[in-house]
Amino acid sequence: MDEPSPWLDAEQQKLWQDLLTVVIALPAALDRQLRRDAGITNFEYGVLARLSMAHQATMRFSELARDCDSTLPRLSKLMDRFEAREWIARRIDPSDGRYTLATLTDSGRQKLADSAPGHVAQVRRLVFDPLTAAQRRHFGAALSGVAETVRREAAGGPTG
Question: What does pTM read for this prediction?
Fold first, then answer.
């Protein structure tokens, strides 16, 4: 039985290079737009958005760091800045004092609301507008499969 090639074939290489372009260049493009229009980074926007989607707009720092692919020290520094801007309030978790909770404030919600239109327009322009409705459906289905495998790997589970 032939061993599989250790190399990607031409079709796989093209797809891989396109994916790398998206993975590397898309966050940078989103970052530029948000810095220019809203004075925040793509990471900061993502943290505000994730908090806004949480139950009562509140999360443990450790869960927020995990969900935003951040280290706890990086997130803590960001939370210091957000708290100084009155975008979040922090408190000890009453159910377990070892944890700190972050809650999005009205001011934080407003910052997110003010930032969202330009961000959404940029996402649409870069990701959705180049695709037809059928391409979006196919892309979504394919990307879901890849994302699920990556999530399992990130969680330490089997990927096969």
Answer: 0.87
